[in-house]
Amino acid sequence: MKTGSENENWKVLASEYLIRKPWLTARVDRLELPCGVIEKGESPLEAAKRELAEETGYGGGEWRELMQISPNPGAMTNMTHCFVATGVEKVFEQHFDEHECLTVHLLDCDEVFRLMKDGEIFQSLMLAPLWRYFSGKEKK
Hints:
Elements (H helix, E strand, L loop, with lengths): L11 E10 L2 E8 L12 H13 L1 E2 L2 E8 L10 E7 L2 E2 L18 H9 L6 H11 L6
Antiparallel strand pairs: 1-2, 3-6, 4-5
């Protein structure tokens, strides 16, 4: 992780010092990280499959597009493509980009829904497709 002035592009959500001694200081920062991007020549589905595999090690399964959303259509032109993947399996170890550090937590649908209702998942580009999925209209 970058420190000092190099860290200005990251929004720090929480910070906790693990140790503060004259000879050693260690801090854990919780950041809201951007999701993956579509590389040149990739379709949104190909990018989603690649990002899932890189960040979690999971792949395969059946995929379908759930929805497309825009974070702020009045000021931005980017789109978020949301997919549902079923039957994915762990196929290899995670492969991170330079500034990624992720931990995979497998949760069942009841736990994800509880996190949504309790406001523990609040990033809008993640929350909107989850609410749509759980609405039952798109759940298959």
